[in-house]
Amino acid sequence: MLEDLLERLATHQIHAPSSTLSVGSRWTKSLDEHQRIVDHVPERDSAKASDLIQKHMSTAKALRLKMFASLMH
User: Which helix (H) or strand (E) element contains residue 61?
Assistant: First the structure.
């Protein structure tokens, strides 16, 4: 499983060499989002954690699409 993950990550890096974490203050915001997700683990609040994960991934997707669009212009 780890090997598969690393192969997919390597492929992703070829197509998207810049991380969304390099955009503005995204690094700090992303760490905060991760912390909020982890905070719900001891509470076993899977619904809230799932909601936060979906928002986190939606933000990352929007940033990635914006980065791709800027490469096209």
Answer: helix 46-72
